[in-house]
């Protein structure tokens, strides 16, 4: 199984999920130089979410959200700050979310769990 493809398919599924929940996708895989990246940035009701998408085929190694380390959380917050400055959106309400996606080995979605304000 190709883990990169699994991650891309998980992000595709997360985008569709957010759209069904009336979020507008602002950016996908936003990079701030060498600082790092954020998988998805979306907005709904003047609230911007910075989402880390974690895709797995099971929970044998723990839940997908457990893979978002403290170091990764700090990186996401730094990159989010860059995004807010770049697009002059510093006055918006923000949330750091995790979207867990469980898929089959042939890339079919089984479950999605959107954890709002995860960190």
Automatic annotation (TrEMBL):
Similarity annotation: Belongs to the UPF0102 family.
UniProt name for this protein: UPF0102 protein CSTERTH_09970
Source organism superkingdom: Bacteria
One family name in Pfam for this protein: UPF0102
InterPro entries membership: Restrct_endonuc-II-like, tRNA_endonuc-like_dom_sf, UPF0102_YraN-like
Any one GO molecular function term: nucleic acid binding
CDD domains attached to this UniProt entry: PoNe_Nuclease
């Amino acid at each position: 199984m190709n883990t990169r493809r699994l991650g891309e398919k998980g992000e595709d599924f997360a985008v569709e999920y957010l759209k069904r929940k009336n979020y507008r996708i602002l950016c996908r895989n936003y990079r701030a130089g060498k600082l790092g990246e954020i998988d998805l940035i979306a907005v709904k009701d003047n609230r911007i979410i910075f989402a880390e998408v974690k895709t797995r085929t099971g929970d044998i190694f723990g839940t997908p959200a457990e893979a978002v380390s403290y170091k990764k959380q700090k990186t996401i917050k730094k990159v989010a700050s860059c995004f807010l400055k770049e697009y002059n959106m510093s006055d918006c309400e923000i949330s750091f979310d995790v979207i867990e996606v469980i898929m089959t080995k042939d890339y079919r979605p089984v479950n999605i769990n959107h954890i709002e304000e995860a960190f």
